[in-house]
Amino acid sequence: MKLGFLGGTFDPIHLGHLRSAEEIAESLGLEKVYLIPAALPPHKTGEPVSSFPHRIAMARSAAEKSPLLDVLDLEGRRPGISYSIETLKELNSLFSEAEDLYFIIGTDAFFEIRTWKSYRNLFKYAHFVLVERPGFPLSRTPALLEELEIGASPLGGEGDFLLPSGRHIFLVSVTHMDISSTRIRNLRGKGKSIRFLIPESVHDYIVQEGLYLSDGNH
After folding, report:
1. What Å distances lie between residue 6 and 46, 64, 151, 156, CA to CA?
2. What is the pTM of this model?
């Protein structure tokens, strides 16, 4: 059993998140990709973030449309800041029977991984799947891996690096969708339409709960 995990603030979750998860599941032959909303994102401690119950509800509403997607609320049940190292340790315990775990991360976040807690140890717990984000091309990854000094060795095929732990780092291209949670929040705050950027069920939830209005209601 091969399982993928895609973490994020998901404020709100949008079609770009969902399409990336779906394509990665198919390209790597994953049985399931779990979306993991961050309860207290370590790199957004100074920014307003919608409540965890709202974000988990939107993620669940979106994921139920695909048999390849599901949602885990484990970071919401853990006190304190949502560090990835703690999440990966917990996932290894929860899914100890799984053949392989795949941690999906955008290149924008990966290029800042040296600021993450215990970042060198992250690679012991899962394969890493890097997804290209605008302004952070996959072509820069090999040089960064050398700088990280984590022992990543390129294998025969492009986009596959082997680590001393036996884990891999995969570079994966997915359909680029010019959608961001920030843009969705800004449009909503200006009273403009956010339809067709997010699943209809998420749109209905946002309207029903009055999220992202100009008065800062989260």
Report:
1. 23, 16, 24, 27
2. 0.94
pLDDT in tens, 95-114: 999 999 999 999 999 999 99
Mean residue pLDDT across the chain: 94
Distance of alpha carbon 127 from alpha carbon 206, whole angstroms = 34
**Helix and strand totals (H; E) in the chain:** 8, 8
CA atoms within 13 A on the CB side of 149: 0
Beta carbons of 24 and 170 less than 8 angstroms apart: no
Mind listing the domains of the chain with CATH numbers? 2-180 (3.40.50.620)
Handedness of CA 140, 170, 36, 26 (dihedral sign): positive
* The token pair that represents 207 in the structure block: 């309207």
Closest by CA to 109, choosing from 2, 13, 29, 6, is: 6
Instruction: State the pLDDT at residue 43.
Output: 75
